[in-house]
Amino acid sequence: MKTEVNRKERRAKRHLRSRTSIVGTAERPRLSVFASLRHVTAQIIDDLDGHTLVTAGTVEKAVADQCEGGTGNTAAAAVVGKVLAERALAQGVEQVVFDRGGHKYHGRVRALAEAAREAGLRF
After folding, report:
1. Is the dihedral of CA 100, 104, 108, 113 positive or negative?
2. pLDDT over 60 at 1, yes or no
């Protein structure tokens, strides 16, 4: 009898496939996005050293207070992208490699990416 793979496992599989070609370096760290039903989080990671340089998400009270209409929508994702880009530029990170985390480049993932670009990140 064939067992069905759930949605979370399929996303994780897609993410592993894309990670074979996406690697963050010190010059161009990886911007990793995770979107759950309630929250959106993003990190900028240097994979060679294994360090997270910058993080932002709706789980933080400072970011969640800026979100209108909840923390799991596209408006909240745009706020996260803007905050992440501001924090990254303050740390001296201007250019990143985008890792959509196995999600489609649509909706919240796209809103986060566009807001980060508008705030000054290049990818």
Report:
1. positive
2. no
How many domains does the chain fold into?
A: 1
pTM value is 0.90
Asked if the model's pLDDT at residue 2 lies above 80, the reply is no
Domain range holding 106?
24-118
Q: In this structure, is residue 5 part of a structural domain? A: no
Name the residue type at position 110: R
The Cα–Cα gap between 47 and 121 comes to: 18
Cα four-point dihedral sign 80, 50, 90, 120: negative
Looking at residue 76, which CATH number applies to its domain? Answer: 3.30.420.100
**What local confidence, expressed as pLDDT, does residue 111 receive?**
97
Q: Which long-range contacts (CB under 8 A, 24 or more apart) does 15-23 make?
A: 15/99, 15/101, 15/102, 16/102, 18/99, 18/100, 18/102, 19/99, 22/97, 22/99, 23/47, 23/48, 23/97
Specify the DSSP element, H or E, that contains 111. Answer: helix 108-118
- Can you read off the two tokens belonging to residue 45? 């990671």
Query: Does residue 55 lie within any of the structural domains?
Result: yes
